[in-house]
Amino acid sequence: MSTLTIPESVPAAFEDAEQLRKAFSGWGTNEGLIISILGHRTAAQRRQIRQAYSDVFGEDLLKALDKELTHDFEKAVLLWVLDPAERDAVLAYDSARRWGPGDPVLIEIASARSSEELFAVRRAYHARYKRSIEEDVAFHAKGDFRRLLVPLLTAHRYEGSEVNLRLANSEAKVLHEKIGDKAFADDEIIRILTTRSKAQLLATFNAYHNDFGNPINKDLKSDPKDEFLSALRAITKCITCPEKYFEKTIRLALNKMGTDEGAVTRVITTRAEVDMKPIKELYYKRNSVPLPRAIKKDTGGHYEDFLLTLVGED
Amino acid sequence: MSTLTIPESVPAAFEDAEQLRKAFSGWGTNEGLIISILGHRTAAQRRQIRQAYSDVFGEDLLKALDKELTHDFEKAVLLWVLDPAERDAVLAYDSARRWGPGDPVLIEIASARSSEELFAVRRAYHARYKRSIEEDVAFHAKGDFRRLLVPLLTAHRYEGSEVNLRLANSEAKVLHEKIGDKAFADDEIIRILTTRSKAQLLATFNAYHNDFGNPINKDLKSDPKDEFLSALRAITKCITCPEKYFEKTIRLALNKMGTDEGAVTRVITTRAEVDMKPIKELYYKRNSVPLPRAIKKDTGGHYEDFLLTLVGED
Question: Where, by residue number, does Ca(2+) 1 bind (chains A, B) (predicted)?
Fold first, then answer.
């Protein structure tokens, strides 16, 4: 469900590396050439190019890109060239260090990745920052958010499809009681959302809807400005339908007075190879405007070209 | 620092498997033969034997052992034959399901293993029980113990040797303040103990000792019967000097009115290939009796023979 287009015959990694070197040399930088290569290679191919670049020219490709590019285009390309786990580690680090209750990045990384992917992020965090992700998050986040984010980020959820329906019913009841009491940060809500498998949570949310009449996310919207409630809603959405969650994130980022480029870049670089196709379809359904057209309207220059390369045509 | 003795020339795994099959067949079971094989093979060799047994005889070696052996001897051999991560998963499962505040098993597994070893346990737990370890622990443990055990078991501590001395000083101060206020289950104590790297915690405990005059564990002993305090002490000991912790565990298990075979078996099967040599040395220093002699005094039969094989001679 990727929106990437890969050429039928992909050049060898060292040829791509040499083309990139050419794009950096001489007068100015050939951004078009950079986009035409890196925007049409899979994560595994980009990793090989990075390796080849370092082997041939004795320099990290990321360093070279950092010198040549600027602004939003630079940020997007650098994130894109990173391995997915390393990219998430970078995003998580930035988010943890300047953490605020409205920041959804840690929730996305903890909830919209598989258990093994999340663990790879934690390993990459060690390698890059000489610390653990939970160490930084527990240090910077406070109170109820810490109580929610640390178990969320350190979970290794079971990934099988087995579901215990009796448990789903009883935990739906627990959730309903706590939400009814407005005890949103109750230990039991946090325990259920942060430890149960995604299949089990889906069953629990279905039981909630069936037994109590509302989808759980509707009941978690009693105060739309409460940031802890937003965090809980983001978790349930990232678990049950990440495409919908990301469609909304990019919609709000584009519709903002002054586009939120950080969010646009994050969603596109992290989802292009995962589920950008359904995100694009949902976007069109919800906004009656194709996502590429919306991106064109709100961005410009090489940044625009690069994003459009990643999300593909209308 | 293992106490295992491995023969100079180890038979091929399929030969060991055939010998074991012989030990099971005919009248009665040849326990001596079983001990002479399995008690003198490394974890990797035992894994190969288990694989060979299954290939040749179409049966899991564990099942066969389960049929042939009984009581404490059976429990010890079964734990021993399991891969270390699987063995820990079994111990953790039993402990989580019948969890009580005095049970140290989850703390040992979370604190006396490396980060990668602990993660391997979590993977083995998924495979074996179709659930996550944190799911079971969060469900069964309550209150402050849950708040302590879940982050402890889900941590993936940084393992490098880098230490931030300023942080060590400031967190030693935080620990001292909270302990002084008898706020033992304070969020900050839990955060520090469950997220910081072992190297960093060592520096913090040293700063604590230097700045406030007592080792932290002494200050955590204000009420020797308080089980939460025991848990905190077990964590600091498993992190700073696991050999000492396990020496004490086996000492108390042997000295008990009615030996605690569960604890003896657990310590010996989990530590024989790790640090049983220093544990044995510490045991002799502390008790003026060699550990093998103490084991002889308190156990009997094939169980005794097997334990002595694993810990080696005086």
Answer: 24, 26, 28, 68, 256, 258, 299, 304
Please check whether residue A171 lies inside any domain of the structure.
Answer: yes
Looking at the structure, do residues B214 and B269 belong to the same domain, yes or no?
no
B134:A197 CB<8 A: no
- Nearest residue of A to residue B123, measured between CA atoms: A156
In angstroms, the CA B263 to CA B265 distance is: 5
Contacting residues for B294 by C-beta, under 8 A, at least 6 apart: B254, B283, B287
Question: Residue A75: inside a domain, yes or no?
Answer: no
Provide the number of structural domains found in chain B. 4
What CATH number has the domain bearing residue A185? 1.10.220.10
Supply the mean pLDDT for chain A.
Answer: 95
Element (H, E) at B198: helix B198-212
- Give the residue from chain A lying closest to B194, CA to CA: A135
* Mutate: best of B116, B162, B194, B195, partner A, most A CBs <10 A: B195
Task: Name the 3-class secondary structure at B225.
Answer: coil
Hey, what's the torsion of the CAs at B35, B36, B39, B45, to 10 degrees? -120
Task: For chain A, give the percent of residues with pLDDT over 70.
Answer: 100
Crossing angle (nearest 10°) for helices A115-129 and A143-154: 110
Angle formed by the axes of helices B71-81 and B31-38, to 10°? 30
Same-domain check for residues A169 and A235 = yes
* A contacts of B126 (beta carbons < 8 Å): 156, 158-160
Instruction: Supply the range of the domain harboring residue B207.
Output: 165-240
